[in-house]
Amino acid sequence: MHLVYPAVLSALLFSTGVYGVLARRNAILVLMSVELMLAAVGLNFVAFDVWLRDTLHSGQVFTLFLIALAAAEIGIGLAIVLLVYRTYGDNAVDRLRALGDRRADGGDAGRGTDPGRDAGDAGDTGDTGEPAAAPAGGAAHEREAAA
Amino acid sequence: MNPLLAPAVLTAAPGETREFLSPAGVEIVFVLVGLVTLGAGILCVTSRQLVHAALYLVVALGGLAVHYLLLTAEFIAWVQVLIYLGSVVVLLLFGLMLTRAPIGPSPDADSRNRPVALAVAVLAAATLVTLVADAFRTTWIELDTPHGRSGDIGASLFRHWVLPFELLSVILLAALVGAIVISRKRGPAPAEEEQR
Amino acid sequence: MNTITAAALVPLLPFAAAALILLTGRSAPGFVRPLAVLPTLTAAGLAVLVAVRQGEDHRTLLAATELTPTGDAALPVSLALQLDGYSVPVAVLVAVVASAVQIYSTGYLRDDPRYPSYAALVSLFTAAMLLVVYTDDLMVLLVGWEVMGICSYFLVGHYWETPAARAASLKAFLVTKLGDVPFLIGILALATDTGTFRISAITASLTGDGATPPEHPTLIALLLLAGVAGKSAQVPLHTWLPDAMAGPTPVSALIHAATMVAAGVWLVARLLPVFTASAAALVVLAVLAALTMTGSALAALAQDDVKRVLAYSTIGQLGLMTGALAVADRDAAVFHLLTHGAFKALLFLAAGVLIHAAGTGSLTALARMRDLRYSAPDAFWGLTIGLLALAALPPFAGFFSKEAVVVAAEHAARGAGHGSPVPVAAGWTVLVAAVITALLTACYATRLWLMAFHDPVGARPEPAPRAAPVSPAMSLMLWLLALPALGLGIAYRWLPDWFPDGTPLEPELTTSATATGAALLGILLGYGAWRRRYETDDAADPGPALLGRLFRPAAAGFRLDGLYAALFVRPVGGAARLVRFLDREVVGTYVRGAAGAPGRLGALTRRAQTGNVQTYLSVLAAGALVLAATAVLTTAGG
């Protein structure tokens, strides 16, 4: 088999993953795109291992490790996303701007999301204000669940 | 492009004459499955329905498993099916549920960064594909003897790679503990909860 | 006690007293008075003792201990004393006047909250002057000289609440410093030329048989002369002295009678061989003296304030002393220094009592007050005696010393001193100026006395205010000082034996007749003018009638201050404004730009800090891509 086929496929899948990471808003979708990128790398590993006929099977062993690490990564990543969601009531990565540089008039530097201020975001995507309502609603839900 | 990137060894089996893109059976299957995989991947990163995106990811990862089989790496293929399809995607679906992802199409699935992302991705794809195609244009994989049989992989894994393997298990344990610690609910103090 | 030890103690005692008062004055104010008076009195006693011991054999005593290496082994600075016929009596005068001033001040500044610092500074002032008088080393002399400058600054500014005192103290300091800079250069040049800082060695190398004149006699003499003019208030650096009247009256007495202004004359007397080595310097000295004498006498005739009249009279008398030095007669100069110290201290202290009694120092106001002579009899008698001495009428002290100066000038004018280095022109200049000044001095002394006290028909409208009685210490000091003002002149008989030069100081018939005649004429003129005004006007100031159109410029000190303002103050002020403008507008712009540009750059870059992870990642990926592409392309291209 021509080596170009798996190599090109891997490159294209990787670029697709890059696009997903950079374009998706939901943190879980971003994690999926990361998985896509990792999988593309795994294909590359296997293809080159088979091509090189490596006696140690380095490529395939690394793919195994990669899969295991991906599983660990998705576990931790999901835990973080859940925590973020529980804290801020939102998991849109481009609205989590607690570390951004606020202008001097910014009063709520402690908050992670800024739905009211970023009216442009909501207008662009036809947002109906659901994320804006999310914090209060989410917090209320949590309390109810706790009780 | 650059001969440096194309290893001179093992470019072609001696005595065999092969044409560029001569369609062998395996290659046709590979291309077809590759198209499906790529399509599923693209749908996964563009779909507006979050659960659908997860399912497209399953298709893409499954296609990759088929590719592993085609490359005679059967062990990796089954591991891929088991872990990726079996657990990772299930985890992702759980995550979607726990964060109350809407079932229907959600119009704000993509951020405003999309044009930039598209440009970066297309450029990356162009660069990588040009590079790879140019570098490995005269390279063939010999698939007559399988290279990734489970026995061989197992022997290699527990003979040469046993230390990293054990390390990996520790990492997995650490990740497990970490995930539990991070996602554990830290609500108000217990006494307060009882008052409610 | 060894004579040298006693002499060393004379400046040390007031110095120690000053240090003690400054250290303890705040915590133990009760000790300030004894600490101020007793060491100065003891110093006066020791000075008298030194004078008696030295007067027994008229031997010049020299003592030196090396003070510090100067980096030039040939030019050591040494703590040296020179006790000769000049320094010993002058030290007695300084110590006695300082004691009188200290005792007087205990009464005069009884209720002053800053008396401790005042007493300390007066003590320090006295110590510095005594050091200047006794020392044999030019560098040590310079130390005393500058200490006096800084003390005068503080003492003139004693009433620093008033702007006049602040301005006067600054002016005194700056003007004297203006002279001190060339003075310092002159000292260094002199030491370089003669190879030593020791005054006795310098004078010895310039006189006698093996005399070797310095290489630049005129230059050195003129440089030294600048410092002398600043310190002794000679034209053109005299303007600080009348303004220094803003200080307390005892300070004026101290500055005018014995310290500070006397230091300049003293220095010229000490270094007279340096000046006689250059005929040009002597002529300059004579012209300066003549200008100072006549100008200050004219200005004194127009002043309204008693103390300013006395200040201008001091300038005139110092001019007379420099005149004596210009004709190379330092005996006459030192003699006049002694008598002038006595009667000028008396005049100032009496004026202080008068001002205390009348509540004002303005002559116009005094001329409206009845019976001042009865309400302040001590002041009346003190001023009378002092003014008679100032007008140089026999037999008061001023007559003899001034006569000695006039005789010396007359000798120089006639070229009598064979082989004398003094140019005849200098002699004539001093002689004519001295006679004119005698007339004018008598005239303004008469004016002062008449305006303050004389009221033959009781025509004055206002009664003298009832003032608190003068403290006995102040009156006592007046009478104590009246004695030398009356009788010190008779010392002309013994002083030539004591003074090293030994020039006879006796009055001569022609000159004394001329000078006394001029003085009598001045008295008559003053009285006549006063009489005419007195009959028509209650504020009887004869000054305008006597001076005519000269009155206004004379009252303003011939507008020298205005000239200095136009020549120096305004250009310097303009330059300062220019520098300020350049600093604020030109240099400041660069500084502000240097601060502002990075600030704006930072504001620009902080806009990239959005907090959006995806933006960061996009930029990161794009950057990595560009790097990768560049790497590949360059490798391939290469």
UniProtKB/TrEMBL annotation, chain A:
Tell me which GO cellular component terms the UniProt record holds. Answer: NADH dehydrogenase complex; plasma membrane
Q: Which residues cross the membrane?
A: 30-52, 64-85
Q: How does it sit in the membrane?
A: Multi-pass membrane protein
Annotated GO MF terms: NADH dehydrogenase (quinone) (non-electrogenic) activity; quinone binding
Instruction: Keyword check for Membrane, yes or no.
Output: yes
Q: What class of enzyme is it?
A: translocase
The record lists the organism as Streptomyces aidingensis
> Does the entry feature the keyword Transport, yes or no?
yes
Q: What is the gene name?
A: nuoK
Q: What is its main location?
A: membrane
Instruction: Report keywords, A-Z.
Output: Cell membrane, Membrane, NAD, Quinone, Translocase, Transmembrane, Transmembrane helix, Transport
Disordered as annotated region, ranges: 102-147
Q: Which InterPro entries match?
A: NADH_UbQ_OxRdtase_chain4L/K, NUOK/Mnh_C1-like
Oligomeric state and interaction partners are given as: NDH-1 is composed of 14 different subunits. Subunits NuoA, H, J, K, L, M, N constitute the membrane sector of the complex.
**Cellular location of this protein?**
Cell membrane; Membrane
Q: Name one Pfam family in it.
A: Oxidored_q2
- UniProt family annotation: Belongs to the complex I subunit 4L family.
UniProt protein name: NADH-quinone oxidoreductase subunit K
Comp. bias (Low complexity): 128-139
Main role?
NDH-1 shuttles electrons from NADH, via FMN and iron-sulfur (Fe-S) centers, to quinones in the respiratory chain. The immediate electron acceptor for the enzyme in this species is believed to be a menaquinone. Couples the redox reaction to proton translocation (for every two electrons transferred, four hydrogen ions are translocated across the cytoplasmic membrane), and thus conserves the redox energy in a proton gradient.
UniProtKB/TrEMBL annotation, chain B:
List the transmembrane segments.
27-46, 53-70, 76-96, 116-141, 161-182
- Which molecular function term from Gene Ontology is one that the record holds? NADH dehydrogenase (ubiquinone) activity
Q: Determine if Heme is one of this entry's keywords.
A: no
Q: What Gene Ontology cellular-component terms does the record carry?
A: plasma membrane
List the keywords (alphabetical).
Cell membrane, Membrane, NAD, Quinone, Transmembrane, Transmembrane helix
Spell out the InterPro entries in the cross-references: NADH_UbQ/plastoQ_OxRdtase_su6, Nuo/plastoQ_OxRdtase_6_NuoJ
Q: How does it sit in the membrane?
A: Multi-pass membrane protein
Report the catalytic activity. a quinone + NADH + 5 H(+)(in) = a quinol + NAD(+) + 4 H(+)(out)
Cellular location of this protein? Cell membrane
Enzyme nomenclature, EC number: 7.1.1.-
Q: Name one Pfam family in it.
A: Oxidored_q3
Query: What's its top-level EC category?
Result: translocase
Similarity comment? Belongs to the complex I subunit 6 family.
Role summary: NDH-1 shuttles electrons from NADH, via FMN and iron-sulfur (Fe-S) centers, to quinones in the respiratory chain. Couples the redox reaction to proton translocation (for every two electrons transferred, four hydrogen ions are translocated across the cytoplasmic membrane), and thus conserves the redox energy in a proton gradient.
The entry's protein name is: NADH-quinone oxidoreductase subunit J
From TrEMBL, chain C:
Question: Which NCBIfam families does its entry note?
Answer: NDH_I_L
Query: What taxonomic lineage is listed for the species of origin?
Result: Bacteria, Bacillati, Actinomycetota, Actinomycetes, Kitasatosporales
| Keywords from the named record | Membrane, Transmembrane, Transmembrane helix
**Cell location:** Endomembrane system; Membrane
Q: Output the GO biological process annotations, alphabetical, semicolon-separated.
A: ATP synthesis coupled electron transport; electron transport coupled proton transport
Tell whether Transmembrane helix is among the UniProt keywords.
yes
Q: Which residues cross the membrane?
A: 6-23, 35-52, 86-105, 117-134, 140-160, 181-199, 219-241, 253-273, 279-302, 309-327, 347-367, 379-400, 425-450, 470-492, 512-530, 616-636
Q: Look up and give the membrane topology term.
A: Multi-pass membrane protein
On the tree of life, the source organism's domain of life is Bacteria
One Pfam family, short name please? Proton_antipo_M
**One GO MF term:** NADH dehydrogenase (ubiquinone) activity
Q: Main site of residence?
A: membrane
Residue ranges occupied by any NADH-Ubiquinone oxidoreductase (complex I) chain 5 N-terminal domain in the UniProt entry: 75-118
Q: Can you list the GO cellular component terms from the UniProt entry? A: endomembrane system; membrane
Please report the stretch or stretches of sequence annotated as the NADH:quinone oxidoreductase/Mrp antiporter transmembrane domain.
136-409
Q: What InterPro entries does UniProt report for this protein, alphabetically?
A: NADHpl_OxRdtase_5_subgr, ND/Mrp_TM, NU5C-like, Proton_antipo_N
Recorded protein name is: NADH-quinone oxidoreductase subunit L
Q: Which segments does the entry list as coiled coil?
A: none
